[in-house]
Amino acid sequence: MATLLFKKKFHDAIRSGKKTQTIRLWDECWIKEGREYRVFNLGVVRVTRIDRVRISALTERDAELDGFDSLEDLLDEVRKIYNVKSLGGKRCYRIRFVFLGDEKKNRSL
Q1: Closest of 66, 60, 59 to residue 13, by C-alpha
Q2: How far is the C-alpha of 47 from the C-alpha of 25, rounded, in Å?
Q3: Cβ-proximal residues to 108 (8 Å cutoff; 6+ apart), any chain
Q4: For 8-97, CATH number?
Q5: What angle do CA 67, 68, 71 make, to 5 degrees?
């Protein structure tokens, strides 16, 4: 099973269902809708939707689905993760997912 990486600080939000989306600044999207991915030290997620969007098209709803209190908080985190000062004009992938269960329950996958 392929792996999708998330920082450990997001694990509780994923497990609780507060975080059901992630924003990735990738040149190409290597994951596929409908497939399951292992998240180390957490469990398994199933990708339900992938959209290529401009950063400027992200909304407060995107921030909420990503587990943030505001769009600015989400954008600050993206800047930090990707070590970029400006997001102007950047394209990104908006990836929605569901958490299927913890790692111990899914070891046989």
Answers
A1: 66
A2: 17
A3: none
A4: 3.10.400.10
A5: 130
List beta partners, residue 102. Answer: 43
The DSSP line for 12-32 is HHHHHTS--EEEE--SS----
Task: Please state, in angstroms and rounded to a whole number, the distance separating the CA atoms of residues 36 and 34.
Answer: 7
Provide the residue ranges of all domains of the chain, joining segments of one domain with +: 8-97
Q: Which amino acid makes up residue 86?
A: S
pTM recorded for the entire structure: 0.88
Q: What's the CA gap between 35 and 57, in Å, rounded?
A: 26
According to the model, what pLDDT value does residue 73 have? Answer: 98
Any bridge partners for residue 2, and if so which? none
* Confidence check: pLDDT of 67 > 60: yes
Local structure of residue 8 (DSSP, 8 states): G
